[in-house]
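Please fill in the sequence for the structure shown.

STRUCTURE ENCODING:
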């Protein structure tokens, strides 16, 4: 899906959560950072980053 529409923030967000649930913190953080770059005004992007950091701790 990311290959079809790399600017769709919801795809990155959902994939970030999937990575986090699989305990893949680095991948989750990468997608969360993509969300932040695409929509810096979107609070959920920062939430996804927080979840990813929590996995990494």
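FILLED IN BY: designer on duty
SEQUENCE:
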């Amino acid at each position: 899906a990311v290959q079809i529409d790399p600017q769709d923030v919801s795809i990155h967000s959902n994939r970030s959560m999937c990575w986090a649930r699989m305990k893949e913190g680095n991948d989750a953080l990468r997608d969360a950072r993509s969300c932040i770059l695409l929509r810096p005004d979107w609070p959920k992007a920062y939430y996804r980053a927080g979840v990813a950091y929590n996995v990494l701790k």
